[in-house]
């Protein structure tokens, strides 16, 4: 019975992650800590539907005080439920920022949220992850081939290397660090023309996490969607390792 912590749970991929995790059999998933800056109506509906399985914790990635405040809340809840530790941390939260490099004046803020934020999440929750059975950390990246997203891409390249560094440092402790591309997903009206329903991409993310053992530590993995392996266009989803 695994325990998960998901950042950026209020909408999009994060919300779908929480929903799919909570709908799995209790023998697989015990508790999902859904974190975001605030609990919106959609997230509240989920916590009310699964009151024993989804626990909302206010947490703003990139805000050190907020992240530190969340640690004892989650630790106390795990202890109350008779659970040893945290099994899986999914660093999903992120922001896009400047589209073009010549306009990239907000790079410090984007780096703080997209790189420093996940790094601090790992540091702060490492004691709980060490007590967990699965010891998994998943960092997320959308490749955004369809538009420049300069600030996002620069910071996610840094997160790629950060994932590799963490994977090497904790390999002997049995950790598995994965960097995953969920695909271009229909997360909202602005992305209604994207490749895949959000449920398809998220389902693949969770399936990859489920079946990938420590042999996958440090890898950058693409999702696999039948029919998309060699599809013409910007995106292919073949389940293979992606280049750094």
UniProtKB/TrEMBL annotation:
Name of the protein described by the UniProt record: C-factor
Organism (species): Talaromyces marneffei PM1
Domain of life (superkingdom): Eukaryota
GO molecular function: oxidoreductase activity, acting on the CH-OH group of donors, NAD or NADP as acceptor
Pfam families, A to Z: adh_short (PF00106)
